[in-house]
Amino acid sequence: MRDDIFPLTKAERRAARARWRQLSARERMRAGRLAERGLPAPSRELSAATLQWGQYMLQRTWSNRIPRSSMVVAGLTAAILGLLAQLAIGVGWVLVGGGLVAAAIGWLTWSQRRLAHAMVSANAVVLHHGDAASGPPDR
Length: 139
Description:
- The structure is a single chain.
- This protein has 139 residues and is mostly helical.
- It has one domain.
- Helix content is 71%, strand content 0%.
- The protein is elongated.
- The C terminus is likely disordered.
């Protein structure tokens, strides 16, 4: 999957956060579930907020420039090395714990980015081609 990194201004980031937080938890969850299935949000306003939030999650930051899998791999590698160090010389539990925490954080951010991509791709169609109720554009 190609990583689209959006160069958002400070005002755009604030607007995206404010707009997303104005939605109820139920609306946010519904928009996310629909996006996971490749479907746009049911209303134009919710679709716009979902698109904006997805772009916010994919904003241009240093952490979005590295592959998501690298943190998982690095964390698991550290955990394995820590386990080997523990078995060999009796010190390594800190490395095991730190590696597992890093791997878990990497896994969560990886899935978060995947959802953000789904939000952007599913809802960009609505804003460019009409209302969500009319469905995707004919090709």
